[in-house]
Amino acid sequence: QVQLVESGGGLVQAGGSLRLSCAASGIIFSMDVMGWYRQAPGKQRELVGTVTRGESIKYEDSVKGRFTVSRDNARNTVTLQMNSLKPEDTGVYYCYARDVRATLPSWGQGTQVTVSS
Prior knowledge:
The protein is mostly beta strands. Helix content is 0%, strand content 56%.
């Protein structure tokens, strides 16, 4: 199980942009899936966007066209570029990664994103 560290969260106004980064460390064989989940206040944690090693990408419907997930396999990092942010995007964003040989996925500690009206 690898360790994940997120960075880049903060406070922005609606319509603004923010870029989150996540770095993986530890013994990594091969990252199968990397991406981001989020949890809004009083809500369940939900998928934001993930990308497989084969570059297959999945996004939550509400962020399509606004958010972009990308990964750098050589550096074992994944980023989330968020544009046209809305107050509904507010929440704690968690980095997610699954090594192909791991039984369970790994989660970062979370980084707060707050979008004001």
